[in-house]
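Figure 3 (text version): structure tokens given as input.
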């Protein structure tokens, strides 16, 4: 803290709950809290992990610096004997997209999920020791969302017992795989399997890209970087690559063969494992992305909340201080729902992790029954949480006024790094359409099949379609059962209405395409039911610490009633609510904001973000914003000299009316 002064001390004194206990509730357990706190401090205190200067670096310098950080981190992992969990936290706190994300979150999981026991025995130890570095090369220049449309071919050659990997067209060039352009030695390449001239679907193949001795690309492989991406630092620490294969031979045993096999004779064998397991890595990463959303949103909210308490604007009386902008109701109505969303996403992420672990165990035991539900949940929640987080970060920038636009606010880089999460691992609209397929199927089977899991509420379809909300006062909205029922009724009604309209089409696919915008809205409504219900389930657990549960209840109502207010068109159009009830919900929301207000700073302190992670002058823990902004401006290398390069050459001739004779 700057000179020991805490400019937010009075704000912190207002807290009505035990902040230390809330930190534990946010982390999930005391052990989780202590672990992440230790790793966060390890990173914050290590000068190699400095990141404030990142946006000022050119691409090559930025990339080299990122390689240095990864190497240093790996050395720490070995020297300090960090566990896999600690190593993951280390990567999170270093906060820099790098090839290791692909190694640990895609290459290794792909082999774990789609490889045979023999393949796992061979490749996993090498990958876990970083003796091979792998990436995930699925997307191509011409196709990303449509995986079945990929053009790269893997043709079996029975003479040599090899597959020949080839890029037959320009659009078949692999395009985007992270870590590939400059680093990875291997990639899981998704390609159309061709046996004896016959196409057998898209499969994953382990392809070596570079020579392990001198790192040069192997013969037949053309590889490079796809170019600068959005933002300056941001995702540009990652070497997203383009790869072109010219008849590259790989051994037959490098096709990932858990789902299907190719025999020595070149016969295709489809095992009992469903083909969808080929998409299993994406299910895993989507679940991780949901868990990550609350981390990103909480960072932006922490910055905007602290700055809103520091910033004063208008309303001075008798020469006294002006009003803190956090006290404006408009500021609260934009900021506090985001604060509540960060908590909501944290808890739904925790639940989704549990769901994924359960599905993974079942898959290992060849029980595939819960895979469709896991796919719909991960796809839908990935879409909901990343869209809301990306929009939320941008809202936080606006909440910080002009200073939010400065790189030193920490928000522009956070936004630029985060926003591709709406696209990668499945475009958010395409993902919601997957949920829609699942919902339509569930609704069409309601007459004879009991929905289970997250759609179980639709068992009460008759009641949810017929009964209406009974709320008569704003106070009556403070009932979790009433709130959840409203979300369930709206979702059921939207899904059933879509089902009824779809039934009028002769061709169901045509109907699906025609109604897709409505189906996306119905899917969002269903995903909101999941988030709201999981928040309630969290509140039903024991949550220790003075005032902690009460504050979380307040945040639950803020989250749910804000959504209700935002989507009141749906709630009214489906007939579950009256305009009066929607208006009472909004009245309650204002009361809730005043309950959040004294606790706002303590609630963002509970995220336990270090100043290093926030990398934000506006979000500093001590609130010492203005002197630090001023200092940072004059520390900018652009201010090294009063006379910038080019002034004498281009400005002075103009001032002197001598441009005609100047050398431009
Ligand atoms: C932010 C930091 C977090 C930390 C994590 C680290 C991050 C690492 C860095 C990430 C970098 C980014 C990497 C990438 O982007 S990799 C590329 C990702 N690509 C995609 O996501 C492509 C999206 N497209 C698809 O998933 C599919 O093609 C799509 C589902 C859209 C359509 O596929 P297809 O045409 O084959 O399928 P159908 O619609 O006909 O469905 C057939 C049936 O299969 C079911 N299905 C589909 N997907 C899955 C799945 N993943 N799991 C299980 N089941 C699935 C589908 O429901 C159909 O079922 P039914 O027949 O029963 O209806
Ligand atoms: C930063 C970043 C990192 C990435 N890393 C990797 C990686 O490591 N490995 C890898 O393989 N890939 C990677 N990708 C690629 C990523 O997975 C794809 O970009 C993503 O899946 C979206 O596919 P697309 O680009 O084909 O988009 P498109 O599908 O072309 O989307 C374009 C537009 O069309 C719409 N659209 C598409 N299909 C439909 C439909 N059926 N119905 C309605 N609307 C539709 C979309 O909503 C969108 O608005 C990365 C991408 C980014 C941005």
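Below: residues designed for each position.
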């Amino acid at each position: 803290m700057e000179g020991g002064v805490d400019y937010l001390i009075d704000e912190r004194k207002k807290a009505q709950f035990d902040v230390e206990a809330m930190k534990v509730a946010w982390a999930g357990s005391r052990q989780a809290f202590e672990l992440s706190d230790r790793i966060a401090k390890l990173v914050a205190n290590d000068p190699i992990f400095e990141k404030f200067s990142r946006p000022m670096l050119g691409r090559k310098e930025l990339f080299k610096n990122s390689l240095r950080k990864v190497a240093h981190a790996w050395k720490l992992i070995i020297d300090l004997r960090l566990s896999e969990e600690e190593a993951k936290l280390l990567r999170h706190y270093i906060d820099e997209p790098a090839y290791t994300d692909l190694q640990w979150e895609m290459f290794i999981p792909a082999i774990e999920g789609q490889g045979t026991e023999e393949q796992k025995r061979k490749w996993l130890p090498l990958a876990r020791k970083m003796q091979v570095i792998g990436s995930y090369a699925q997307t191509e220049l011409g196709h990303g969302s449509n995986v079945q449309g990929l053009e790269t071919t893997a043709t079996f050659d029975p003479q040599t017992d090899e597959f020949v990997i080839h890029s037959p067209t320009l659009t078949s060039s692999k395009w985007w795989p992270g870590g590939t352009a400059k680093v990875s030695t291997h990639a899981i390449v998704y390609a159309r399997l061709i046996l004896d001239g016959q196409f057998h679907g898209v499969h994953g193949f382990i392809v070596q890209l570079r020579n392990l001795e001198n790192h040069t690309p192997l013969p037949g492989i053309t590889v490079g970087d796809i170019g600068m991406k959005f933002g300056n630092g941001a995702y540009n620490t990652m070497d997203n690559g383009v790869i072109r294969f010219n008849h590259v031979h790989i051994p037959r045993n490098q096709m990932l063969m858990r789902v299907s096999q190719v025999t020595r004779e070149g016969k295709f064998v489809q095992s009992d494992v469903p083909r969808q397991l080929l998409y299993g890595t994406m299910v895993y990463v989507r679940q991780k992305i949901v868990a990550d959303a609350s981390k990103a949103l909480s960072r932006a909210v922490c910055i905007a909340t602290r700055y809103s308490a520091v910033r004063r604007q208008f309303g001075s009386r008798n020469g006294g201080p002006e009003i803190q902008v956090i006290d404006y109701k408009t500021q609260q109505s934009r900021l506090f729902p985001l604060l509540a969303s960060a908590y909501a996403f944290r808890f739904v992420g925790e639940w989704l992790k549990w769901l994924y672990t359960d599905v993974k165990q079942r898959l290992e035991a060849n029980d595939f029954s819960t895979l469709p539900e896991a796919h719909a949940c991960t796809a839908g929640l990935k879409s909901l949480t990343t869209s809301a987080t990306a929009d939320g970060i941008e809202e936080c920038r606006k909440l910080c006024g002009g200073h939010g636009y400065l790189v030193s606010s920490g928000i522009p880089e956070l936004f630029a790094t985060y926003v591709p999460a709406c696209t990668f691992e499945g475009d958010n609209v395409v993902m919601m359409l997957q949920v829609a397929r699942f919902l339509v199927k569930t609704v069409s089977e309601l007459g004879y099949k009991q929905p289970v899991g997250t759609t179980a509420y639709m068992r009460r379809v008759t009641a949810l379609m017929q009964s209406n909300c009974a709320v008569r006062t704003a106070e009556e909205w403070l009932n979790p059962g009433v709130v959840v029922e409203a979300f369930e009724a709206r979702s059921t009604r939207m899904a059933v209405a879509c089902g009824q309209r779809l039934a009028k089409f002769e061709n169901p696919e045509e109907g699906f395409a025609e109604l897709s915008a409505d189906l996306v809205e119905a899917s969002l409504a269903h995903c909101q039911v999941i988030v709201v219900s999981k928040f309630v389930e969290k509140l039903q657990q024991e949550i220790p610490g003075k005032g902690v549960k009460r504050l979380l209840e307040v945040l639950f109502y803020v989250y749910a009633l804000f959504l209700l207010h935002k989507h009141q068109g749906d709630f009214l159009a489906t007939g579950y609510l009256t305009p009066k009830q929607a208006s009472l919900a909004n009245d309650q929301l204002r009361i809730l904001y005043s309950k959040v207000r004294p606790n706002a700073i303590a609630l963002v302190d509970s995220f336990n973000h270090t100043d290093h992670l926030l990398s934000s002058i506006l979000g500093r823990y001590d609130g010492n914003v203005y002197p630090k902004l001023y200092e940072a401006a004059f520390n900018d290398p652009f201010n090294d000299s009063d006379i910038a390069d080019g002034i004498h050459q281009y400005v002075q001739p103009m001032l002197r009316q001598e441009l005609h004779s100047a050398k431009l």
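The chain is about 50% helix and 10% strand.
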